[in-house]
Design brief:
Strand order of the largest sheet: 1-3-2
Structural class: mainly alpha
Strand content: 5-15%
Number of helices: 7
Helix content: 40-55%
Length: 176
Amino acid sequence: MPSPTGALGPQTLRGLAHPLRVRILALLREHGASTATRLAGRLGESSGATSYHLRQLAAYGFVEDVPGRGAGRERWWRTVARRNDSAGHLRAAAADGFQRLHEFFGSAAELPPEWLAGVAIGDVTLRLSPAQAVELVSRIGTLLGELPAEAVAGSEDVVVQWQMFPRLREKRRNQR
């Protein structure tokens, strides 16, 4: 089981060992609680497969039943709020993000013109201390948290992906 702080150990990482589990978690985080059947439809999988993987995710503490929701065999699941910052989880999340970006490129030609100015893909290299990096992550999180979550006329789900990591290996390589 995960620790109360959300740190992941080798045992818990098994819960994320299957790519379908990472995709299920991403959908639950993005769209909220769902059933195995609904997730199966979105993922192009069988409900038996999604049900199995949801039970595995629950066993490792990543998802839980939604209290008071669902009747009979219709079991609703939601993510458990936690911070996952292990290398294994970060790698799985990055792979999922890359897949989502790849899928976007496959349909970008169909994007309505009014959305073009709202698409951004780029990078910048900054020189930051660890404390500055923590501050930047915090400020980005605050900004994202200030944006409205409710739908307004003309709104669509927008995926915000960002990564921040030091390039320590390259720096050490150049110092040799």
